[in-house]
């Protein structure tokens, strides 16, 4: 009976590992990331939203672990913020479209040139895995 229990634990653990690795961050050259897990965000006093996701994102820089920004004072920004907060509350993975940073800043962080003004700008947001 003890061996059977260990076997079941092993099978369940393997299934979890497979499902976790199958849903890894997927980014492409078209400035799109799918299956993104929001990691951190904040909103400044001017309504700018700063978002960080888990994983390495091409053509972005990292400002204090955040790769993307958008203006939540515009109609589109209000929609994206509302959607983002809903997706975070529901623990959903997200899809992000963005404009890339200048290639000289790609892979930089706040100590090497990445600033709120130079970060990748989000141009679209969606729910992943529906």
Structure description:
This protein has one domain: OB fold (Dihydrolipoamide Acetyltransferase, E2P), CATH 2.40.50. Helix content is 28%, strand content 29%. The chain is built from 2 helices and 7 strands. β1 and β2 form a beta hairpin. It is globular and about 35 Å long.
Quick synopsis:
With 130 residues, the chain is α+β, with helices and mostly antiparallel strands. 28% of the residues lie in helices and 29% in strands. Strand 1 (26-28) and strand 2 form a beta hairpin.
Instruction: Output the CATH class name.
Output: Mainly Beta
Low-confidence stretches: 5-22
Strand content: 25-35%
Secondary-structure arrangement, i.e. CATH architecture: Beta Barrel
- CATH topology, what is it called? OB fold (Dihydrolipoamide Acetyltransferase, E2P)
| Alpha-carbon distance between the two ends | 39 Å
Assembly category: single chain
Could you spell the SSE succession in H and E letters?
A: HEEEEEHEE
- Major β-sheet profile: 7 strands, mixed
What characteristic shape results from the CA principal axes?
A: globular
Portion in helices: 25-40%
Number of domains: 1
Count all strands and give the number: 7
Rg for CA atoms? 18 Å
Instruction: Count helical runs.
Output: 2
The side-by-side strand order for the widest beta sheet comes to 1-2-6-7-5-4-3
Q: Could you tell me the mean pLDDT?
A: 85
Structural class: alpha+beta
